[in-house]
Task: structure prediction
Amino acid sequence: MQIDTFKVKEFPAIDQIGMSTGREKLRVCIVTEEIIGPVRNGGIASTYYHLSKGLAAHGHEVHVLFLKGRVVQDETPEHWVEHFAAFGVTLHYLEAPKADLWGSSIEWQARFGAAYAWLRDNPPFDVVHTSEWRGGMIYALMAKRMGLAFQETLFLVKTSSPHIWNRHYQMQPIEQREL
Result:
């Protein structure tokens, strides 16, 4: 087992951070390829399921854009739309058109382009929450940075496990010092 020398910092407790006292309700979109329901299990899936429920419970308008389209592991796509609607969340399945692309990850490039177009073509969101996993919002973030779209939208990118954590968890040594 490797010896870890990285520093661990404590995250402040929620009572120290405080809750927003603002009365404004936000229009939020969670863009993900993992969410409990269409997907059986997973850290990202659990995070976004509970985030969507929590935001809706606080009165925010919550949409989930599921990047995998109408592919679900249990039940039917319609079942999950009704399930999420029961607690105030609108579930959308991204339909990625067939694209004439070349390069690596062609399937995901088409999805990420379609996700950008979907966000661009819908009424603007105050907040778009996504994961860095596979980079699903790369085209949307590029458009924002270039001033083409989303100038009034805040993008929040949740990061998952860092490389060192994955190596440690799998009991694999770090092979290069810079990692």
Q: What stands out?
A: The CA atoms of residues 35 and 48 lie 6 Å apart. Helices lie at 14-17, 43-57, 77-85, 106-121, 138-145, 163-169. The first strand starts at residue 27 and ends at 32. The chain has one domain: 25-169.
